[in-house]
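Support request from a user on the community tier.

User writes: "When I paste my structure tokens into the form, the page sometimes reloads and wipes my input. The last time it worked, I copied everything first. Here is what I submitted, just in case something in the input itself triggers the reload:"
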């Protein structure tokens, strides 16, 4: 990484020369400026330190719409967003913008096609938290298998007994079904194999040979659902995966099986999950992601004892949070100083 310059020479648009004036003829746009369009983080200390080291001005806002980004970004060369929608309208209105960076992996809030036509780099963080998410999925699986949350509730409520939690089966030799064998799915597989589990995998975009070569058995979705003790979701949210787990799929699962979702809430039709649990179609679920985040107080899942919920926290560790803040700032400096991000 070319970061030896303490003061950036001035921004230049990808494949073009340095802009010296904007559409209104102003010629004061050369001070490298980054706008963080929105964020809900406790601190931006890492970004502030990196930008001050490289002479980059940082502006922060809490934009919810393209119009608000346009208003806040009049002098920005880089836009870093958490959720704010960076659309074609933004690139049209802010011709000095060189890069649009997403805090995190998914980048569906950035119109990549419009950015590409405008010659604007789009940057995301595809792998800043693979280990963390895989650890979280395995942690949820172990909590379900060992009934840790239910035991914890009982002991805090004054009950000290094991028999209420029978049966508990050893995780060793149980079957884990993994849907989506990408970056995170692969890490989960290795951890499950280390635990002595049998692993079934369904991923229509990965060859059976590749799956089998990594110690899993490639199967169709129906077989995976019917044969797994735990089903864990690691596919992205697409038109194809939206509600890929609904009542029909719960009916195929074993009554003793558990569902784990650390991917995206909308992969599961969560409106039917309470019914699936009440009817005993599955034994329980652990969800780090919900269809609506945060859940409204009337969300029935909040009252389901067989459901473990975590607040979209799978990505987080001290180390991944450091990467989440550092990489967008470093990538901004790369774009501003000329070389590719
Ligand atoms: P990835 O792109 O590396 O892998 C996704 C895999 O899913 C690919 O192998 C793809 O072929 C497969 N896939 C696509 N469509 C499928 C389908 N219809 N059925 C089965 N498999 C299908 O993604 P990743 O980095 O492993 O991330 C997986 C998911 O985890 C993403 O949805 C991401 O948003 C989510 N995630 C959640 C958190 C969190 O904090 N909870 C953090 C990071 C990522």
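"...and here is what came back when it finally went through:"
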């Amino acid at each position: 990484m070319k970061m030896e310059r303490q003061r950036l020479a001035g921004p230049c648009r990808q494949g073009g020369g340095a802009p010296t004036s904007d559409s209104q003829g102003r010629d004061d746009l050369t001070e490298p400026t980054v706008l963080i369009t929105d964020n809900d983080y406790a601190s931006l200390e890492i970004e502030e330190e990196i930008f001050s080291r490289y002479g980059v001005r940082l502006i922060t806002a809490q934009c919810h719409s393209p119009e608000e980004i346009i208003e806040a970004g009049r002098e920005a060369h880089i836009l870093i967003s958490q959720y704010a929608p960076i659309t074609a309208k933004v690139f049209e209105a802010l011709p000095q913008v060189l890069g649009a960076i997403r805090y995190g992996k998914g980048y569906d809030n950035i119109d990549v096609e419009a950015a590409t036509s405008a010659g604007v780099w789009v940057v995301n963080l595809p792998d800043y938290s693979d280990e963390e998410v895989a650890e979280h999925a395995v942690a949820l699986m172990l909590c379900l298998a060992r009934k840790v949350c239910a035991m914890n509730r009982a002991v805090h409520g004054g009950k000290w007994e094991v028999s209420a939690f029978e049966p508990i089966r050893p995780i060793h030799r149980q079957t884990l079904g993994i849907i989506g064998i990408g970056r995170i799915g692969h890490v989960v597989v290795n951890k499950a194999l280390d635990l002595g589990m049998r692993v079934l995998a369904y991923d229509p975009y990965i060859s059976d040979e590749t799956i089998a070569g990594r110690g899993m058995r490639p199967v169709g979705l129906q077989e995976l659902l019917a044969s797994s003790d735990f089903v864990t979701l690691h596919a992205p949210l697409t038109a194809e995966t939206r509600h890929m787990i609904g009542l029909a799929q719960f009916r195929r699962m074993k009554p003793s099986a558990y569902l784990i979702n650390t991917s995206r809430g909308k992969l599961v039709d969560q409106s039917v999950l309470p019914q699936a649990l009440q009817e005993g179609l599955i034994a329980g679920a652990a969800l780090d992601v919900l269809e609506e985040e945060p859940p409204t107080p009337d969300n029935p899942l909040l009252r389901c004892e067989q459901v473990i919920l975590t607040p979209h926290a799978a990505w987080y560790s001290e180390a991944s949070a450091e990467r989440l803040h550092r990489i967008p700032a470093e990538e901004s400096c790369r774009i501003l100083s000329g070389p590719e991000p």
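Agent notes: The reload is a front-end session timeout and is unrelated to the input. Residues 318-336 form the longest helix (19 residues). The two ends are 9 Å apart (CA to CA). Escalated to web team.
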